[in-house]
Amino acid sequence: MMIETNSPEETFELGVRIGEKALPGQVYTLNGDLGVGKTVFTQGVAKGLGILEPVNSPTFTIIQEYEGGRLPFYHFDVYRIGDIEEMEEIGYDDYFFGQGICLIEWAELIEEILPESVISITIEKDPEKGFDYRRITIQGLKPEEAD
Ligand code: ADP
Ligand code: MG
């Protein structure tokens, strides 16, 4: 599935719709360059899950947990990860194989430990289509979750 957005608000709203339909145990991977909108999208997902706390990219921690929504929400940003060992240290498998929702910014950096079945989201810019244009590709959603 491919969606085009032309503002941060639209990307946020797409995240809200995904968050509203998210199912226990799902792992969402989020890839795309710095500043492309991964955190904006994530903030939408959190809102869709009913989380009222502000969500920002954790700078000095790999994971931030939010318990106040419809399902536990585990927001990973692995941009600064040095070694996969750091994921072992936080006990990542309890999150990846638990009953909450995992969303991983920069998931491509930890490819080797990702579960087999993830919902992958890639956000890209296209300079020819303007500053605020984003192409968002989502793979792995079931048809009933995709509309
Ligand atoms: P990332 O987490 O991928 O590094 P952020 O979500 O922190 O990126 O920042 C994205 C930036 O791009 C924000 O400043 C946002 O306002 C801007 N932006 C412009 N157009 C869009 C769009 N269509 N979707 C998402 N963000 C956009
Ligand atoms: Mg970010």
From TrEMBL:
The keyword Isomerase does not apply. One of its GO terms (biological process) is tRNA threonylcarbamoyladenosine modification. Pfam families: TsaE (PF02367). Keywords: ATP-binding, Cytoplasm, Magnesium, Metal-binding, Nucleotide-binding, tRNA processing. It is found in: Cytoplasm. GO terms for cellular component: cytoplasm. Its main location: cytoplasm. GO terms for molecular function: ATP binding; metal ion binding. Belongs to the TsaE family. This is tRNA threonylcarbamoyladenosine biosynthesis protein TsaE. It comes from Candidatus Blautia stercoripullorum. The gene is tsaE.
